[in-house]
Amino acid sequence: MPQINILPKHLAELIAAGEVVERPASIVKEIMENAIDAGADKITLEIQRGGITYIRITDNGCGIERTEIRKAFVSHATSKIANENDLNSILTLGFRGEALASIAAVSRVEMMTRAKGEMIGTRYCIEGGEEKLIDDAGCPEGTTLIVRDIFYNTPARMKFLKKDVTEANAVAGVVDRIALSHPEVSIRFIRDGKDALFTTGDGKLESAIYNVLGKEFASTLIPAEYELDGIKVSGFISKPFNARPNRTMQFFFLNSRFIKTRTGLVALEEAYKNQIMAGKFPACVLNIQANAQSVDVNVHPAKTEVRFANEKLIFNAVYYCAKSALTEGDSRVQANIQQKQKQFVQKQYMPQPVSGQQIKIYEQQLEKVSKDDFWQKTTADEFKASVPEKKPINPVSTKHVLRDDSVFRIEKDEVDLIPKTTVIKPEPTVVVKEETAEIPFVVEEVKPEIKLPEPTVVTESETVKLEVVEEKEIPEVEPYRVIGEAFKTYILVEQGEKLLLIDKHAAHERMLFEKYRASQDAIETQMLLVPVTVTLSKEEYSAVLDNLEVLSKAGYGIEDFGNGMVILNECPTAVADADLAGVVMELAGYLADNRKEIIPEKLDWIYHSTACRAAIKAGDKTSAFELNSFVEKLLNNPDIRYCPHGRPVLIELTKRDIEKNFGRI
Hints:
With 665 residues, the protein is of the alpha+beta class. The protein contains 21 helices and 28 strands.
């Protein structure tokens, strides 16, 4: 039997720290929650390199007395609960007493704090769980905690941290959720020396949503509030028209604590049933206020999973809250049709008349312009008749130049303007009594010398390898006849003794998918005249920034717009008319859920998504010519038998099967 060892205190703390401290975002969450529990209404967070090397959190809470500082860093030391009965009515965000001890076990921590009523503050330093310094310090009331070099003493866990940008976005996600859950707290977030977020702390949830999630997202929400049997639900939900392709913008809070609840999620989506398209999901920021004794938050160290004493009651409260908000607050989509602008040319060149005399002059000028207009008074035939016909030009022009006892006559072809050179050798000049005889010119054309390559001699010992390219035999297509289209979805084709039913969307989707895969970097793209700005959750935002190169290969030119937003400048031509914001959200959701997939699989999914949106839809009108061209292309490509979803693109019905059903055989 192996010997049982009692682990040393520092080793036990390192193991326990893994439950609380997984990454910089975990540290930020724990410390900010402690600051809120301490009564702070102003919190400043600063990080560097994603929080891996530096985190500083300052609050104006009650502070910690000097005599209590050492206790705060002892495992399971807390001021939130005193006995087991307190676990049944937890209203604070923190209560386990593990955070500070776990953080100090894996990093270098420096705390400066001053409690209310104290004249001087305290500076306390602890590294790897060992106290290094405790001394006086000048500081305001409240607490400042600085955490440096996370996992410096556990390199095995350090290697699991992601890139600085990814870790910083995870921290930003934590800050967003805390800001939404506590709109009464003013939060300032500084990221690598730049302000990333600032909330006013005015207590209004709409202000927090505007600051955290942006103006565009906030404009799609409607207020919601409902109370049922002591359960109060309040916040905002999205309009059905502004549903999103995933659930990443669903924020549920329980007594101002961010939670993940399957009950609330199902209740919300049930309220939207038959009001949003299939595959779309509503967004929300909802806070559930319930009796602390009716919920259990002591389920997981992260405290995001909770249990309700009565799940049905929570379901009904959320359902009726969303249903009543949709009934009262949702309005029809308003079309924004701008009046067509009149001709602008006249205003551009003529001043706007202000008096009767000026109007008269103005009309005369317009009349003169219209009369003098070339295209108004001359037709195309009249213009052709007025242009004189060009006479053929002598293609050869001659020029004599005397140079080095030779004369060059340069011929210029008027058709292709390629100069040709002919050499003329003069005969000797005869001089008689200071008179010069005429020089007869003998024209001799110089032909360019063409060197032919010497033939290659192959000896008997050498062999010549000829590369034979086998041509793929394309099977001959059996004659067919396109009968027509049923339900504007299925193409009917008669081919021999068979009747083919073709799903035009599925077939077209597969064709486009294969085209994109074959083209790879040569996908046709289109620059957008007006770039599209998309608001994403911090997880999606980080995933998109990590895969910008993959998206670029698929034809999507996306750039970082800051603070959880990206901007789309370029897209594949095939989806230029689609809901581009929805496309980006869908791609971002997939990338956030499939971070570990290899790049070819991600590209295939993106090609598939693009093909699905670009393909002709069921119900779209298709002309007879298009039907025939489509069927011809499909039947000549025997590899297209299933769409990227795995559904068949065509079904065969034999003549025998049809006659059998009609009782003919």
